[in-house]
Amino acid sequence: MRIIQSEAIVSAVRDACIEACCCLPADVTCALEKARDQETGHARAVLEQLLENAALSATAMRPCCQDTGMAVVFADIGQEVHFKGDFNAAVNEGVSAGYHEGYLRKSVVSALSRENTGDNTPAILHIRLVPGDSLELTIAPKGFGSENMSRVYMLTPAQGKAGVLDAVVETALCAGACACPPGVVGVGIGGTMEAAALLAKRQLLRPLGRPSAEPELAEMEAEALERINQSNIGPMGLSGKTTALAVHMAQMPTHIAGLPVAVNMQCHACRHASRRL
């Protein structure tokens, strides 16, 4: 049994919130550079500006986008870990500290009254128990330009792979410029409605552009990406070859009567940062 103090969680979450909002992961930067090299005209200019913005924000440790999102926290908790203090409270305290100390925009409001909570809490917390005695925390700030363009489809089994592909492409094309392309398309297939949505969001954490280990899904990812990029929506909707940087799919078993499909859109700022305790 290993004990983790709540103060360590607060510190880790605070630091990861600031890093995630200010520093794009290297794989995202590489994907944007690759896309830039394939573009010309307005599309190339947009991608050059996105890369310059990313470099400046990382140097100054200031947000790369004014929408610093809701703090989505993925916590992989080792079964041999015991927390000293309230784990949920520590996560939210860390988010609050990160958004205050990092000068990050506080965008979280009550759903109906629209009153701002003041510190970007509560976080959206997803907990998964895993073997071992460590805690892995991943902070993924999610802006709502892209989140608003996400969809859940309850397909029939007869619609099969073709229906899944059509749903993915339809979501990306309907999003158009609203999801701040070029971005990443996370897809969860199977489970139940909410399980598919969580599975889709987890795909945004995958190394950018790495194909699925399942050959069938890897083939579907490539087809969906090609169809999306043939749309000519392009970077920030100004036309071009790159509307999406990647499509990441995962599947899980589901009920004989259904085929849930969730499509979680992510903007070009595919932000996340991790800490291991």
What's the rounded overall pLDDT mean?
97
Major sheet: arrangement of strands: 4-2-5-10
Q: Which fold name fills CATH's third level, the topology of the largest domain?
A: 60s Ribosomal Protein L30, Chain: A
What gyration radius follows from the Cα positions, in whole Å?
19 Å
End-to-end Cα distance, whole Å, is 14 Å
The helical percent reads 25-40%
Largest sheet: 4 strands, mixed
Which parts are unreliable, with pLDDT below 50 for 5 consecutive residues or more?
none
Count of helix runs: 8
Number of separate structural domains: 2
Class of the largest domain, according to the CATH hierarchy? Alpha Beta
Q: What CATH architecture of the largest domain do you see?
A: 2-Layer Sandwich
Share in β-strands: 15-25%
Shape: globular
The number of E-state strands comes to 10
Q: How would you classify the helix and strand content by structural class?
A: alpha/beta
**What letter string, H or E per element, gives the SSE order?**
EHHHEEHEEHEHEHHEEE
Describe this protein's structure:
- The chain is an alpha/beta fold and 277 residues long.
- It folds into two domains: 2-20 and 64-142; 145-270, 60s Ribosomal Protein L30, Chain: A (2-Layer Sandwich), CATH 3.30.1330.
- It is built from eight helices and ten strands.
- The protein has helices at residues 6-22, 26-38, 41-60, 87-101, 144-147, 160-175, 193-202, 215-229; strands spanning 2-5, 70-78, 81-84, 124-130, 135-142, 151-155, 183-191, 244-254, 259-266, 273-276.
- The strands form three sheets. Strands 4-2-5-10 form a four-stranded mixed β-sheet. The protein has a four-stranded mixed β-sheet with strand order 6-9-7-8.
- Helix 1 packs across helix 4 (87-101) and helix 6 (160-175) runs parallel beside helix 8 (215-229).
- The chain is globular.
